[in-house]
Amino acid sequence: MDTDGKLIWEMIQYYDRDPKRVGHFLKVYGYAKAIGEAEALSPQLQQILETAAIVHDIGIRASLKKHKSSAGPYQEREGPPLAKAMLEKLKYPPELIGRVCYLVGHHHTYTNISGLDYQILVEADFLVNMEEDGMELDAIRSIGEKIFCTDRGKAILRELYLKEERKNGSRGSKKTSE
Question: How far apart are CA 37 and CA 12, in angstroms?
Fold first, then answer.
C-alpha cells in the first residue's frame, strides 16, 4: 500500500463510520491532486498538497467535542497536533509534517495565502464545499473572484458552476429532471 493509501485508511478509521467526512476529504484530495498536477508542482510540493488534502479537516471531531462547533478557527487550532501525530505514526518526513500541519492550521484563513500548495488546498476545499453546502451562484461567483488564482482551479469552477453563465450570460446551469 502506498503512503497516501495508508493515510487514507487511517483517516477512514479516524472518522469512525462517518461517510460524509470521508467523502469530503476524498473529494478535496481529488481536486487538489488534479489542480496540483495541472499546475506542475514539484513532486515534493505535490506530496505535501495531497497529504494536507487528506488530513485538512482532522480537527473537526476535536472541535466539536471541545468547542461544540466545527467552525474554521477551531479546526485550525485542533487539527495540527492530530495531523502531526498521525503523520509521525506513518513515518512521514519531519519537513513534510511541518508544512502539512501549517496548512491544516490555516486552511480556513483566506488572507495572506503563502505558497501554491496552500492556494490549491483552499481552492479544492471550496470546490467541494460549494456543492456540499449548496452555495448560491452569487456566493460562488464572489469566491471565485476573490479566492481562486490557479488556472485549473478557475477552469474547474467555471466547468462545474459557471459554465452556462460563461456560454450565454444566463444564471448557472441547473440540472433538469433526468
Answer: 25
**CA-based diameter of the chain, in Å?**
52
Please give the model's pTM, rounded to 2 decimal places: 0.90
Could you give the CA distance from residue 94 to residue 130 in angstroms, rounded to a whole number? 33
| Cα torsion angle, 145, 146, 151, 153, sign | negative
CA dihedral 116, 140, 55, 156 (to 10 degrees): -60
First to last CA, the chain: 39
Q: In angstroms, rounded to a whole number, what is the distance separating the alpha carbons of residues 49 and 119?
A: 10
C-alpha span between 135 and 52 (Å, rounded): 24
* Residue 87 grid coordinates: 503523520
d(CA 31, CA 125) in angstroms, rounded, equals: 8
Q: Give 112-130 pLDDT, tens digit per residue.
A: 999 999 999 999 999 999 9
DSSP single-letter state for residue 160: I
